[in-house]
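Interim report, section 4.2 (structural modelling).
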Amino acid sequence: MNDTALSREHRERRVLAVIEAARRLADARDPLGRDARRALPAATGLSEASIELSLSRHLETSVTPADLAKLVTRAGSAPRVHVVLSANVFTAVVRAVALAVAAAPSVVVRPSSREAVLAPLLLRALVEQGSDVRFELSENLAPAPGDHVHVYGRSETIATIEARCSPGVTVRGHGPGFGVVYVSGDALDERTTGDLGSVAERVSWDIVAFDQRGCLSPRVAFVEGPPAAAERFASSLADALERREKEVPRGALTDTERRERALYRQTVQAIGPCHDGTTSVVGVDLDPRAMLIPPTGRHVHVVRIADPGDMTRLLAPHRTAITCIGVSEPSSCVRSIAALAPGARILPLGDMQRPPLDGPVDQRGML
Amino acid sequence: MNGEREARAALHRRVRDFIDASEKGDITAESFDELGLDIARHQAEHVPAYRRLTSHRRCHPRDATSVREVPAVPTDAFRLTRIAAHTPSEDAAIFRTSGTTSGARGEHPLSTTATYEKAALAWGRWALFFDAPPAGTQPSFASVRTAIALTPRRTLPLGDSSLHFMVQLFAADFAREACFLQLSPDTLADPGELRARSAAARHAGNAVVVMGASFAFVHVLDALGDEPLALPEGSRIMHTGGFKGRSREVAPSELLARMAATFGVPQSAVVGEYGMTELSSQLYEGTWRAARGLPTPSARHGVFVAPPWMRVVAVDDDTLDPLPAGEAGILRFEDLGNVDSALAVQTADRGRCAGSTVELLGRLPGAPARGCALAVEELMGSP
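Predicted structure of the assembly:
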């Protein structure tokens, strides 16, 4: 079978089969869902509550017709797609496989060596539901000319794979990135419609997902307005993160993450207010000269800006790494923010880790 | 503010006296901790960033009994805010870090360069130019005839690279003549000029010192290939810093071997310097001293010796608490020369300390590359 044998309708059916399989993994009562919950804490380092949150809230289990059409278009077409998965966000396997089966009749998946739980379970679900959609699990990567390789991971991994692939192989790399939050002055203005607590609450959920290891995870929050607004937001966010810690405890940090946390905390303590929580650090820069991107693990750098132009200036060196911008409310500023990082998704706060299933999470270079 | 200025000037004088006494081998008038704590107390009062840090840490230097107890300012803070006791109008120089992909460069403002110069010259003399006359005497001869710098000539107003400043200082104090092979900060040293200068030195039979960043040496060595330059006996090389973003990376042992072979000097004459923009003092490998029969705490490449006015300790990378000697951690520097900014500076560099020596173990994985190394990657998770 070659790629031309897949009609658009057929591609969409293949994607829907993957989503149907994913529903079983999301279901805590399903044997496959139970297997996932049993194995993932050890494989990912995330807490059990965090695994539950990820499977029940962040795993893709539905798609709108419009998003499905976009996904199929963006998937491209090839006789075979090889998928190289990253360990950091285990739920990413569903979107990755959905894209691959939409693109090609033959799919080979290489799970991360650190997290090889969900891909086999997804395959089992596909087999058990009697779907003709299959993929091969393999530790090897041997693409032939004409094949596509979808790589999710570090820049070095993508570069290494690109270098090793023979001519004629197309490599689509989805590299590292991070999310930022933009809170407009109106959102925090109690005289208008602003609701500080609600905004902070929504951002906290975006932060705790996957312990901030995903490329959509917000690491920096820009707060427009006077310094007091940024301070109030940071304080409210720190409180929200403390509440999240009780509900969804953070998992274990790696040695690197612990080191970076210590240095980040000490750095922000020199530049402004700092909320040192049980597991999180919320630093505040009221007079920003440059960007400081905190490490992963539920830490947020709150930056006071006078207007969106400040945000553009500060993020300019990082614009290609921005994968997602969470906004407090639709506003005229969104267009200028979007121009800052073409390809970055603009999503409502609270939904930064739940982008529509309309293509790769990382759309940089696609739009 | 005048009171602050006078107090700061007095601290600078005390530090310079400390350096003088240390260099002469005399007992210093006050201990490292006495002087260091006075500096830290001054900074806690007059450096806003340090005041914030001590407040957050609930650890004021007035309550400390040793320098080791006071909080250290991470190097990243120098990029994010001004770390200085004096006002910008009093800046005599601002040293800046290399450009990075993260945007702003780290800045180290100095209200006077006198203390920096005193520290740099004293420890440079110890490691590289001990055959020069002692400080304060009229030189009847210089340590070397010619200083060949793979850096640009310092221009007025002061260039912002502390390395370029120091190289200029060494060239002026330890050599009779100097040439600067980098025409501008944006270009690299000219290998052809290096060839010509080396040939002239060889012809005259006069020892030279060649100084520059490690990446600059890689550039000229690559251009020269296997061509030997064969410098006269007594010549020495000083190199410093990393490679990222500036040239291909070369293993330290390979660079050492290539420099020694190309310049025709023993490997002991290739001396590594360890410094950073945020510090006022430098560390050196003691290999050249050892080769000349002079005492040194270490004669190994990769092990750097701190001067008496600086202490280095490896700290726990989670708590930032000091570790016992010999244990690996991230490096914290306590530099009496940093009167104007932060006495204690916390880096992300890993190392192992024993006495006054530091064995570098490489940069903290995941941390942004600093110093002469350009950052090519920021702290980002993968999707």
